[in-house]
Amino acid sequence: MRCLVVRFPSKVTTYKESTISKFPVVLSYLEKSDMAPGELYKKVKNKVTDVREYMEILDCLYTLNKIELREEMLHYVG
Question: pTM score, two decimals?
Fold first, then answer.
């Protein structure tokens, strides 16, 4: 089991540095079309710090029912 370390905006962490600021970046690609996780990472890797942060973003969006995994493809739910 892996531990989520989501960076929330605070006095120390700016909104731009926070994990939730990256949600719209990921969702904007998935709104256009379904993508495999690897394909999506290639498109957003210059916007996220590393793979760990990318996985945290996907975990959060999945938990919030914004995305789902269908046949190994990420799908935007809305």
Answer: 0.88
Helices (H), 16-75: 23-32, 37-44, 51-63
Distance between CA atoms of residues 76 and 42, nearest Å = 17
Greatest distance between any 2 Cα atoms in the chain: 41
CA dist 9 and 17 (Å) reads 8
CA-wise closest residue to 3 among 65, 75, 70, 52: 52
CB-hemisphere CA count at 13 Å for 58?
Answer: 21
Q: What is the pLDDT of residues 16-63, one digit of tens each?
A: 988 999 999 999 999 999 999 999 999 999 999 999 999 999 999 999
Give 16's DSSP letter.
T
> What's phi and psi for 49, nearest 5 deg?
-70, -45
Query: Tokens 């739910």 belong to which residue?
Result: 77
